[in-house]
Amino acid sequence: MTAIVCGDHLRPGAAERLGAIVLEGWCVKPEVPEIVEGDTLVVAACRGEFSLGPVQRALRRGGFDPLGVPMLDMGPEDYSDETRLRVRLEALMAHAAAFAGSRPEQIRMVVPERVSRRALLTLAVPEYRAGPAVDLETCRADGGCAACVAACPHGAITWHGGAIDVDRVACVSCGRCVAVCPTGAMVNPAYTSAQLYAEVTTLAAAVGGAAGVVFVCSRGPLAAVPGGWYPLVVPCVGMLPPHWIVAPLLMGLSTVAVAACSCGVEDDAAQRVEAVVEYAREWIEGSAVTGRIVPCFGPVPESAAPLSALSDPFGPLGAVAVALALGVAGPERDEVSPLGLVTLDQTTCTGCEACAVGCPTGALLVRRSNALVEIGFSAAACTACGTCLTRCPEIARGAITLDRRVDPAAIEAGFQIQVRSEVRTCNRCGKEIATAAALRRIAEALGDHAALPSITGLCLDCRGTRMVF
Amino acid sequence: MNSTADVAHLRQGCFRLLSRGFARPGTHDREAFEQAGTVLDTLGLDAFAFAPAVWGWLDRFALANEAALESEYVRLFESGTDGALCSPMESQHLGSVRAGDAATIAARVESALRRYGVVVDDGRAPDHVGWQLELGARLCASEQACGESGDEAGVTAALHELEELTATLGRWVPRLHRSLVRHDRTGVYGSLSGAAVAFLIHEGDLVRRAVYGDGKR
């Protein structure tokens, strides 16, 4: 692992102190020297003195994938405190080491402003940002899940015949689709859960309770983060779910803050951040501190579980790990809640299984035994994506409800059967027809229709046979 | 690299190089590809995200055994009792919906090739990926010529055609790539199709941004 640092503002001898390659004038003329070996690299450039396009070009020439090379923007707070700079470099090296590669569809071109419909004849060196793309293996759009479509504020994601399509031109990498994806199929290669976990773990090991992290937006101008705080760059702070904010506290850092959104691309980002932070604050019952970087959190409750209990807190089911570690229920019925509790109503559910078939995480499951259909729910796998609500044909009658809240007790309770229904068999051949509840519902809808005994008493095959003979 | 004409020149080179990669291997390919790589490097290929994929393919090609490459080409793209193992023809991927689709596709591509002065004369079908990439090169050449003469309408027209071409290729070349990755024993054709996919994705985005600007489509 190597770090290249621009030495323009550093004191002499910084290379030894930082354990990095320090090069004068690197921001102006970026190059990757041949002595750089291995496949992990971090670059530290001076804030406001470099252009992303030439840096990415230099990285490509050096054999690196620019999306896998984190950029550290150095400011006066870093030049004056080399210990802090070293810790930041170490954290980003951990981030880079967790990079799993990128695919062409995860590269989003950012056209400089001077290229427009009316200026087709000029073009600057292009810049590229990491964008989200779907992993077809884990995406459950075929089951009806469209959580990313609903979350995208730019209409860049569409659902067509059971597949998700991301329009890279309309996408602005806000990251909301990544945060809501129940299966982790939507991936931004530069900000994966493994990378964030590695970065926070390294920071926690290096500074422990002596410092806090600040979530900052990657798309706007990077704000100066004062001493004692370490920036944690995410696509945009408007994407943050509450458990991402709580997780660093559980990993050993004393304070977490969310910097005000600096990109301003989505109008509702500030409002969302406020709601999420409020939720997280209530969740951990901490005290708020306000300042330039707002809002901040107080220390973790003493009841919190140790770091070892936390696995992949930034992953799709990270909220479960955080909830179990905190052991505290989240605020009730909050739209911000990262988890949910599904309740099936025994009296109105027909046992059609549509909810379980569509559930992308397997939180709703069907069990069949002894002519019984049982549908159960596990709170440990529910991300409150709401796919089950869109699939249920009896939702108007209250067959299914989703309560968006975090309840560690429900998570610990595990899989619970909620609905049981007998399976009725054909009076003629003994084959399964449907659940008793479904047949009752049909009878209710048909009233005293002449075909009712045939529909509820015979399977499809025998119904056809009987009509012929 | 200051103008879209320069960029069009570079893209033209990429289209043509990839097109040549999908042709039957010849004795002078190694030298020709090496020279093409040098030219693309001079034109600033590294500024673009698809550059590593192109370099990766050229590196693999440079190391590959010529005879093995030729036999692999035949095995992948030409032989087979019920068609090629990894068919490089659009009609084999998109032309199975209605009777006559394959012929319609071939005729459409051939007509477009003729409009830009390309004569299909080497035994490959007009909808072969190599010919379609050659069409892309011709469109970029047209875009470059219009750009250099300040003809914005001509640039726009070429970009619109490129948009259609990249969208069509985007519907089946990734599938061809997956198939090649699975079957190619040399690794050269898998990396070639990977470079083609990376380039076409980039090209599609670039063209759409140039034509419609941000967020219009």
**Gross morphology of chain B:** globular
Q: State Rg of chain A.
A: 27 Å
| End-to-end Cα distance of chain A | 79 Å
Structural class of chain A: alpha/beta
Largest sheet geometry of chain B = none
Write down how many β-strands of chain A occur, each being a DSSP E stretch of 2 or more residues. 19
Give an overview in words.
- The complex is a heterodimer of chains A (469) and B (217).
- In chain A, the strands form 7 sheets. Chain A has a 4-stranded parallel sheet with strand order 2-1-3-4.
- In chain A, 29% of the residues lie in helices and 19% in strands.
- By secondary structure, chain A is of the alpha/beta class.
- The radius of gyration of chain A is 27 Å and the shape is elongated.
- In chain B, 71% of the residues lie in helices and 0% in strands.
- The longest helix of chain B is centred in the C-terminal third of the chain and has 25 residues, at 188-212.
- In chain B, helix 1 packs antiparallel against helix 2.
- The mean pLDDT of chain B is 88.
- Chain A binds chain B through residues 53, 56-57, 60-61, 63, 65-66, 104-105, 107-109, 111, 115-117, 120-123, 125-126, 128, 154, 167-170, and chain B through 1-7, 44, 46-53, 147, 150, 152, 155-156, 159, 197-198, 201-202, 205-206, 208-217.
